[in-house]
Amino acid sequence: MRTFEDTYRHKGLRKQLVDQLKQKGITDERVLTAILQIPRHYFLDSALDRVAYEDRAFPIAEGQTISQPYTVAYQTQLLEVKPYEKVLEIGTGSGYQAIVLGEMNAQVYTIERQKKLFEEHRGFVLRSKYPNIKYFYGDGYEGLPTYAPFDKVIVTAAAPYIPPKLIEQLKVGGKMVIPVGEGNIQRMLRLTKQRDGSVTEELFDNFSFVPMLEGKNN
Fold first, then answer.
1. What is the block-wise mean pLDDT of the chain (218 residues), using blocks of 10 residues?
2. Rounded to whole angstroms, how far apart are CA atoms 147 and 126?
3. What is annotated as the active site (predicted)?
């Protein structure tokens, strides 16, 4: 069961969450405003309603998680999204990250490999509010060549290596934010594609994500 009522209490908890994110170093006002607008409790079972605005991850279906708000804000801030940019997201998961990008007026193309999670998004209450988000069932390592090139790519699962097809689908000058590494801890990277097809890498903080798996799961 989920609760689809956004009360003054929920809005007050979101304000507290945004204040925490500022204290942790999130400075992009567009990111903070998006998080302030989006009812995170809609993405969770109503049993978790009281804790939905704590800055931590929660389990969702198929062994996946809804990421910690700080992680969502951190990746989104690194992505430097501008309105109307085409953004490819690998790993729809709960859909929260995609909707943060949608709230920031990006044109979002999001891929989910878990059939059950993909199907759940069809009837999600916020879906009609964001016609700028397109949902796909597929293999994240393959990307979406039909819709390429993309201004930005964001990967929300731990990649053991940088998927070459995602680099191919990035515009020259485009950026990809991706946690890379095997094991429990990954390093957040920001890659910028150069004119010759190579990328420059910037290294950021360590995080812990569920692994990015190949193929699709029925």
1. 85 97 98 97 88 91 85 98 98 95 98 91 91 97 98 96 97 98 94 96 94 82
2. 24
3. 67
The b/e string for 177-192 (b: 16+ C-beta within 10 A; e otherwise) is bbbbbeeeebebbbbe
Encoded amino acid at 185, one letter: I
Interval 171-205: pLDDT, tens: 999 999 999 998 899 999 999 999 999 999 999 99
Rounded to the nearest 10 degrees, how much is the dihedral formed by the CA atoms of 39, 43, 47, 49? Answer: -10
Chain-centroid distance of CA 45 in Å reads 19
67 counts as catalytic: yes
The rounded distance, in Å, linking the Cα atoms of 213 and 195 is 29
Is-above-0.85 flag for pTM? yes
Tell me how far apart the alpha carbons of residues 101 and 108 are, in angstroms, rounded to a whole number.
7
Question: What does the DSSP assignment read for 84-134?
Answer: T-EEEEE--TTSHHHHHHHHTT-EEEEEE-BHHHHHHHHT-TTGGG-TTEE
Which one of the listed residues 67, 128, 198, 208 is annotated catalytic? Answer: 67
